[in-house]
Amino acid sequence: MSSTTDARPHPDPDIPAVGIRQPWVELILRGTKTIELRKVNTRQRGRVYLYASKQPAKHPAAVAAAATHDLDIDQLPRGQVVGSVEIYDTRRVRKTDADSACVPHAMLDGQFAWQLRNPIRFDKPLDVRFLPYGIWFYPWKRRTPGRAGG
To answer: Where are the alpha helices (DSSP H) in the chain?
Structure first.
């Protein structure tokens, strides 16, 4: 799944990015993590860039997920756009979503499940022109009001 290709040139300034910490981004790119958990829902659908946040996730669940998948969090790219993924639906999280989200069941309460598919890993991570200022941002242009779905 993670070897999907995309005919569009990158970077495309009209595609929004979502900031996600490592190792979660790596697990999405591998096609292992197919649900992104968030406290808020989103109307955003379609292809979005994956920005690997500058700070890695320190939560015990992230450390455990990295160990389970033999990942060294400190060696994963950070502070760059590393690929893209398609958000095809969102909903309230279900008890059965733990494995798809790569987290323990205790982390599911009160969350939304952003359903992901067709991850694309870029051959080389891309530097951004504009840094994140919320969940959604445009890495290569100033934000146009009403563009990214909240």
So the answer is: 24-29, 60-68, 98-101
35 touches 24 (CB < 8 A): no
Query: Hey, where are the domains in the chain?
Result: 17-137
**16 contacts 48 by C-beta, under 8 angstroms:** yes
Its pTM stands at 0.89
Among candidate residues 92, 85, 80, 102, the one with its CA nearest the CA of residue 32? 102
Residues lower than pLDDT 70 in the chain:
1-10, 143-150
The Cα–Cα gap between 48 and 84 comes to: 5
Question: What is the CATH number assigned to the segment(s) 17-137?
Answer: 2.30.130.30
Q: Which residue has the tokens 């563009």?
A: 147
C-alpha angle 92-95-97 in degrees, rounded to nearest 5? 75
Is the previous residue joined to 13 through a cis bond, with omega within 30 degrees of 0?
Answer: no
